[in-house]
Amino acid sequence: MSNEKGPDHSRRKERSRQAILAATRELVAEEPYEKVTVEAIAARAGVGKQTIYRRWPSKSAVIFAALLALSENADRQNDEQPVTLPDTGDLETDLKLVMRATAEEFADPAFDRLIRALNTEIVNDAALAAEYQEKLARPLDEAKKARLRSAQEAGQLNPDADLDLVLEVLYAPLFQRWLHRSAPLTAAYADSLVESTLRAFAP
Amino acid sequence: MSNEKGPDHSRRKERSRQAILAATRELVAEEPYEKVTVEAIAARAGVGKQTIYRRWPSKSAVIFAALLALSENADRQNDEQPVTLPDTGDLETDLKLVMRATAEEFADPAFDRLIRALNTEIVNDAALAAEYQEKLARPLDEAKKARLRSAQEAGQLNPDADLDLVLEVLYAPLFQRWLHRSAPLTAAYADSLVESTLRAFAP
């Protein structure tokens, strides 16, 4: 009997999955977006095109998986702790830390191109947009809302504020400015978003 | 001598331009985005592909022109008046009117698909993003800022507020919610954005 489905097979499959995701990230970082095709990813990863299509239905799906794997790896480095936001007891300090880090992250060219590629796909693909919401956006939003709830309990935020709205008012301007490249993402800008959001939802 | 460059020639050129832009809008409204190609636009408009490429360098450029023409036609219907925002003297009332209309416009399927197509292009094309800012976004932003300035003078808005930031805090959440289809764009949502923005930038 062959042990094709045994531990060696699983290891090979996992190695090929990692090679495909790494190739995707590299290509997105290096090439104009229209050149990132399933063929190019397969060639870079040293696998056949069918190996990719057996696992993912489309280029969108591979790009999404590449981004998801980045965020899973980051989690693993943190000893599988779920994402949490800093909590020094002062909401303004903590949010400024987070928003400055977010502005820096978006300004990193490798991350910029990967997120831009993902956005291109989800804008035109409602199913992928839903998967993005469920697997990436919502877990992060829940972590942020936990921090906002503790601020509500500490009397630093309106106890009746709609926390989804608070997050939108805080993050969406930065996202739009980045997406449309309408102005630079500076630390001062990150701070001003925190300040206007806290004024809008003051206790 | 032929009068190829005379008035008849100009009229023919303008008719072909209008046919191409109309074909672009129809295709974007009807077809999945990857099927909207320069070939398909040429076929629908009844012109050769080269007629399109003589005028526009890329599919992105044609889509942008189609959207720009829509907004120029709207201007012309208003007797070439520049865009202005309603000014009843009450900023909250006026902004709610505008934001509800914006939410409705984004919910219109034909407009939705055209703006989504344009966004797909400008996300990956910095030059087109700059053209979008200059020709479409900035003139609208200037009209909105004129209304905000009159509210500052009337003591309804913080006189030191950065008006670009005010516009971002007001519009970006709606834009992001629409782009990511993360939640519905209701009139109540439009109102809540106006209210949180006015709290953030109260005098």
UniProtKB/TrEMBL annotation, chains A, B:
Lineage, top-rank taxon, reads Bacteria
Keywords for the protein's UniProt record, in alphabetical order: DNA-binding, Transcription, Transcription regulation
Q: Where's the DNA-binding part? A: 37-56
Q: Which SUPFAM superfamilies match?
A: Homeodomain-like, Tetracyclin repressor-like, C-terminal domain
Task: State a single Pfam family of this protein.
Answer: TetR_C_11
The answer on whether this UniProt entry bears the keyword Isomerase reads no
Residue span(s) of domain HTH tetR-type: 14-74
What InterPro entries does UniProt report for this protein, alphabetically?
Answer: Homeodomain-like_sf (IPR009057), HTH-type_TetR-like_transc_reg (IPR050109), HTH_TetR (IPR001647), Tet_transcr_reg_TetR-rel_C_sf (IPR036271), TetR_C (IPR011075)
The protein here is known as TetR/AcrR family transcriptional regulator
Q: Name the species this protein comes from.
A: Streptomyces zhihengii
